[in-house]
Each structure stands twice: as structure tokens, then as C-alpha cells.
Amino acid sequence: MSVRSTFTRNGIKAHKHTGQSGKRSAHVNESSPSTQSFRGGHEPKPTDVFIAVMGVTGSGKSSFISLCSGKSVQIGHTLDACRGTGTSKVDVYAYKVSPDRTVYLIDTPGFDDTSKNDDEILSEIATWLGASYRSKILLHGIIYLHRITDVRMQGSARRNIQTFRDLCGEDALKKVILVTTMWDKVQSSEGDMREKQLKDTKDFWGWMLSKGSTCHRHDNTETTARHIVHRLAKHKNLIITDIQKQLVDQNLQLDQTAAGKGIQSETLKEREKWMKEQQKFEKEIREAMRQKDREKEEIMREERDMSAAMIRKANQDMEAMRLNMEELVAQREEREALLEKRIEERLEKQMKKKQAAHDKEIKRIQREKEAEMKKSREQEKQAQRDRKMVEEKKTAEQQRKVEQERRSEQERKAKAAEANRQSQNSSSKVQGWSPYSVTIGDHSCAVSGPRYYKASMDGWPKMQAGSEWIGAVSFGSSGAWIARYGGGTWKYSLPNYPYLAGKLAHHGVRNLEFCVLGPGQTYYARWVNGVWWSQASEQANNYLTEIANRSDGSKVLAMAIGYNDTYVISFGWATGSTIRGQSGHRRDLKGYYSDLNEFANASSSLDIVMASVGYAGFAQIPGDHKSLVLGGAKNASLKRL
User: Fold this and answer.
1) At the N or C end, where does the chain have fewer CB atoms within 10 A?
2) Where is this region: Disordered (predicted)?
3) For 305-337, how does the pLDDT look when each residue is reduced to its tens digit (9 = 90+)?
4) Which pTM was predicted?
């Protein structure tokens, strides 16, 4: 997004970074889910858990999911600036409960939203549930959130509960947990009374509880949120909702489903009300015309036109629900394609603006260099004229000495100029990463320096490509790797890294300056023109953007991406093969790598010149090292833990 980026492509949203964070926001945006849409392009595991979170707008769904997943969830469901406020979008957020088990929380838009009609909300939820059912993805249960602060159940609240019951069906209610939220905003006695009313009233929660649903309180803590989720996750029985059966198995239109009929009934009532209003205003118009009351006639015409508009809107809403499963998916894909186009246009505009600024800066530098060269030529011409005048006034011997001195001076200046030129060239060749590197992959690792390279296994990458020796290497998941050789040549093998491979194909590797791989398609890559892309956590992307926007010219010198979105980022300046200075480093180890975190905390002035963290299995380090995780300090020594 950098993305919200929010992963995308093959069903997962990633964020694009070019000076702006995008975040890979670790949340998944789905239109019609496939079985590969939830795990970075891989099939879901049999142990994975899918739970829908429902409730009216403002009931606390986003906060609940954020507490469980540890991911930033946009409160109020504002999905994108192109979309405006409110949303009718289904989002999926994942968090690991163990290395081989992931819980996916499906965040659904809420009914009773002021910016969306209930039929639009039902259409979005039904489309997602139907498409997931066709893709063999079944729910482990549903969590329905309700504000305990609601004083009484209004008509709209009753309708929302009825719609939820119709959507689930009686069989699915056994895997429904009814959750009350916002207990910190009411007196305990008052909350107890309202909870009892919800449980005891048949039209509220009473009937659902009698069919096997359970009721729990959420006190806005991670503990209660995860406890509620794990009550559903620990069961192996999956559910199929009535609306999934009706749309997919029975091939009904949305307005023919039980939930659709309920909402259509309310829409018909609204249309009938507006039709009566329209008739009343027509009568008032005729009366005003008879009395020649132009002002009243104009007001009544405006009221009549508004009623007519509401009638047309009701007709459009009912027509929009006369769609079967295939038509619902096609409609959704059309909306998503339009949104993607708008986002791409906006990003393209930002890219052009940045490129224009870059071109302007290049021209300014060229003008300064040309001015310096012109001044140098004029100075040289003046020096030649001065020498000529001296030579004319001197005797032949003096002229010989002057000539000899002039030549000596020329040689000295030439050497100084050459030394200065070499120094300028050397200082202009800013190396994009530290001359030292250490990397740990799934089952391999390597250490490299200006005069050293050692890997834990033979094979690719080769130590030598033509006449060039390997300078640095980064290992990723599933045997992926990318290596830089002495002359600036890059070699790589990137199975299961389609996004990075696409960026390398688009921008080329000739001007690639820095690249590091992480687990599960995560990476960071930067080109010499400043363009960079990242597929990492939202927090890491924010820091990468902050570094890219620093006015002191700092760059990322070393970076490691590890298990469960952990990361270490070092930034500063490098010239040739020498680290000139460091601005600092950022890290978030999320409680993992405790020895590494303890070492980093204990080192008050740590300059990191290379970094790597293991993320999949155990890697045997060459020599007698057990696990090489950090290269630190200005003398490029290695920290062994």
C-alpha cells in the first residue's frame, strides 16, 4: 500500500512503497476467496481455523480482532481513501496460535451502518460466505458482538438480530457465541440487568441460546478476546450457514434466501411509506395551485421529488438483490477492479511526481558540475597566460628553470587532481549495504566479508560468477536466495517469491542496490534511484519509510526479517567497503530471540553492520558456530549466541 501492504495479488493485498510506506499491513482483503488466499499463496492447513466476527456497526468488531491478532485494524472500516468513509468490505486477519496452526478472523461489515443500506451489507457478507463455501472453506463458528451500553432494543436492532438468525440458520447456532462488549462504560448492576433481558427475551437472544448458542462477556482485553476465539477453535466440527446452502446448494437468488426476504420486507415497507408521502404531496400541490400559493407549491414539489427519489432507491435496492451466486461474485469483482484501477492511478501519479523531482535534482547537479568545469578551464587559461608573461621576461636559463618548475607543478597538480578524482569517485560510490553479511535460511546459512565466504552447504549460490567473487548473499524460504558479486552483478533463485521476482523483472537487477529475503515471501529491495519495495510488517514498513525520508541521506545498511513479523533494521552511511557512520537501528523481536534482544539492550552504542534471524527450523552454521544471529560493533566483529 506500502501498502495497506495491507497482502494483495493472488487474493492478498500488499502495499506498494516508493518513498511512502505501504505497508504490508498484515491483513488480507478478499473479494471471492480461493483456498490459496489465506497463507501467502499456499493451501490452508487442515489445522487452520476460520471464524466470522459479526455485529452492528460500532459494536467493537475491529477492536476485538485487533486484540486477538495483534494487527492494526482500521476502526470504522475505512478501507481506502478512494472508497470514502464506511465500508461494505469483508476483511480477513490472521494470527498464529502455534507454528503449524493459524486462526483467521473474518471481519464483516455491520448492519445499521449510516453510510450503507442493509441490503448492500447482506450482499457483501453473502457473496463472501458463498464464495468461500464453494472453495471448500468452512467456518468453525461465528462470534456476534453486541454493545451492553444499548439502553433498549430498538426496531432496527431487533431486525438485525432476525437477519443474523436467518443468515445462520438453526443448525449453525450451536457454534455461535453471543458476546457483550463495552462493560467498562456501564454500571455493573445496569449491565447485569440488560444482559439478563437479552438472555430471557425470545426475540433477542433467548431463542438462539435455546438452540445451542452461548453467551460471554468481553472486557476489552486480549485475554477475554482470545479465550472467546479459542472456545470455537478447539472444536473440530465445522458449520454451513443457511445462506450458504441457499445460495450455493439451492442456487437461489439473494432476495429468495431467508435473510434476503427479511430485508426485502423492510424495503417494501419503506417504499410503501414513501409512496403514501408522494400521494400526499401531490394533493398538497394541487391545493396550492388552486389557491395560487406559489411558495407552498414549490416546497411541496421539492418534497414530492424527494419521495420519488426514495421510491426509486428502494426499487434499485430490491433489484440489486435479485442476483444468484455467480452474479453476486461478478458484481463484486467489477467493483474491486474499479477500485484497483483508482489505486493504481493514484500510485502512478505519485510515482511521476517523485520521478519529476528526481530529474529536477539531477539537472541541478549537472548544472553545478558544468559551472565548476567552466571555472576550472578559465583558471587554467589564466595560469597559462601568466606563465607566458614570466617566460618572456626571463633569460633562457630562467625560462628553462621556469619551465622545469612549471612541469613539476603540473605533475603535482595532476597527481593531486587524480587523487582528488579518485577520492570523489570513491566517495560517490555509496555501497547499498554493509560489506559484511550473515544469512540464515530454512536449512542453510552463510557468512561473507571482503575476504571471506563460507556456506553451510554446497551448491547455489556459487562463490564465483565469471571473474567476480561473491560479496553478499541472503537466503529466504523454500531454498530461495539472492546474491551480489564483486562487480555489482546479481544472481538469484526465487521460488515462492513472485512479487519480488516481478519487481526485479520490472526495474532490472543492474541498478539493484540492496536486497534481503525473509520468510513467507517477505523481502526488502532498493534500487540506486531510490525506489524501494517491501513486503514486511506494517511497523517495519513505517520505519523503512521514515529512513527513506530522512534529510541526512541515511540508507538501510542491514536488515533481517524473522519469524512472525520480527525484524532488525540498521541504517546510516557507507562508502566503498567502509562504514562511515550509523544513525541507529530499529528492531521488534516480539518476545522471540530472547538472547539477541538481551544482547542488543545491553549494548548502549551498538552499530549493526550485518544482521540475520532464523525463522524456519534449525540452520547449521559453518565452523563451530551454533547459531549466528547478529553482526555488531564498528570493528565488524560477529556476535555469537
Assistant:
1) C
2) 1-44, 368-433
3) 998 888 888 888 787 777 777 777 777 777 777
4) 0.48
